[in-house]
């Protein structure tokens, strides 16, 4: 292989983007770029990588029959919606809690899908039924929830003072947490 063909090969290989023959010529120096490209195409035919032209630009790519070897399966982390995040926090701080109690704390109805997402993630489970008229389902967190968030138990959940100190509460959130605390106090008084 002559020096010009090697220079064309190195230019294409080192480029982050596909190159036109004119761009290749600017980097590789003097010579017939088209002849060099034909030579390289023949050399790389049937190998693990190949030289291809797409839309007038040249680049190296993995041979199509080997592409499956380079694919990686990975889980894409799903971000929780604000409703799901709020629901998870309510369940964590007030478990066992019914759907009606979650809605009362949030001030809006939650869709069934919100709890389904949390249950699919393995962070929320059903925890029986409340012994009241209608016997509503109760929800609680799981061990997977504790593991995912690095908690030994629910007692390790940060308190409102911890969240304020970390700068994680805005004024609206503080109001919500104060309402949650008031609701918990009322709930505790009813149980006594």
TrEMBL record:
One protein family per Pfam: SMC_ScpB
Tell whether Cytoplasm is among the UniProt keywords: yes
InterPro entries noted in UniProt: ScpB_csome_segregation (IPR005234), WH-like_DNA-bd_sf (IPR036388), WH_DNA-bd_sf (IPR036390)
Give the Gene3D superfamilies listed for this entry. Winged helix-like DNA-binding domain superfamily/Winged helix DNA-binding domain
Question: Which SUPFAM superfamilies does the entry mention?
Answer: Winged helix' DNA-binding domain
Q: Which domain of life is it from?
A: Bacteria
UniProt KW keywords:
Cell cycle, Cell division, Chromosome partition, Cytoplasm
UniProt name for this protein: SMC-Scp complex subunit ScpB
Q: Which organism is it from?
A: Sphingomonas telluris
């Amino acid at each position: 292989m002559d020096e010009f063909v090697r220079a064309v090969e190195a230019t294409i290989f080192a480029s982050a983007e596909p190159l036109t023959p004119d761009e290749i010529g600017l980097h590789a120096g003097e010579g017939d770029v088209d002849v060099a490209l034909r030579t390289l195409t023949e050399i790389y035919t049937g190998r693990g990588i190949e030289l291809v032209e797409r839309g007038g630009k040249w680049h190296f790519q993995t041979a199509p029959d080997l592409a499956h070897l380079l694919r990686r399966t990975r889980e894409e982390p799903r971000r929780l919606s604000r409703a799901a995040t709020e629901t998870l926090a309510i369940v964590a701080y007030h478990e066992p809690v019914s759907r009606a109690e979650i809605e009362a704390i949030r001030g809006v109805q939650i869709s069934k899908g919100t709890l389904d997402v949390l249950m699919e993630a393995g962070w929320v489970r059903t925890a029986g039924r409340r012994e009241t008229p209608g016997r509503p389902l109760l929800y609680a967190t799981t061990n997977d929830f504790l593991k995912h968030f690095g908690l030994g138990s629910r007692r390790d959940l940060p308190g409102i003072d911890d969240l304020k100190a970390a700068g994680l509460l805005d004024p609206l959130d503080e109001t919500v947490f104060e309402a949650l605390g008031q609701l918990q106090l009322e709930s505790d008084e009813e149980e006594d």
